[in-house]
Amino acid sequence: DSFFKQELTQRKLLSYPPYSLLAKLSLKGKNSDKIQAEAKNIVENLRSTINDKQPTILGPYQSIFWQKNPSYHIILKYRLAYYSIKHRQEAISNIKSLIKGLPKGWQIEVEPSSIQ
Q1: Engineering a disulfide at 75: which of 18, 36, 58, 109 sits with its beta carbon 3.0 to 4.6 angstroms away?
Q2: Can you give the pLDDT at residue 49?
Q3: What is the Cα–Cα distance from 58 to 56, expressed in whole angstroms?
Q4: Does 43 score more than 90 pLDDT?
Q5: Residue 16, helix vs strand vs coil
């Protein structure tokens, strides 16, 4: 019980789930420089589109564990006032509107099992 309470306190301070919703945008390709440039361009576009502090944008960063083709990831962290289905759906809707123009080839994962 004490571990659970301590973990929730830490997660709230850091805006980790369940106090936020995470969405991972991923792009793989053969040319590392090209996909890195595209990832940076997406981050710049997202930052210029966002007119409040939601969501927080982390990245882009290159995956450590890639085999044949390098991949780059961007994490969108949308802070929730408190966890509820309604707030979660609003966050998903807001994230969808931000990434609706994402170029072909990007993968989107809401509440990813890993950020790697």
Answers
A1: 58
A2: 85
A3: 7
A4: yes
A5: coil
Token pair for 21: 């919703």
pLDDT, tens digit (0-9, with 9 covering 90-100), for 18-41:
999 999 999 999 999 999 999 999
3-state secondary structure 31-96: CHHHHHHHHHHHHHHHHHHCCCCCCEEEEEEECCCCCCCCEEEEEEEEECCCCCHHHHHHHHHHHH
- Closest C-alpha to 69, from 113, 32, 22, 42: 32
The Cα-based distances of 39 to 13, 19, 31, 85 in angstroms read 28, 26, 12, 30
**64 contact partners, CB below 8 Å, separation of at least 6:** 116
pLDDT of res. 76: 95
Cis peptide before 18 (omega within 30 of 0): yes
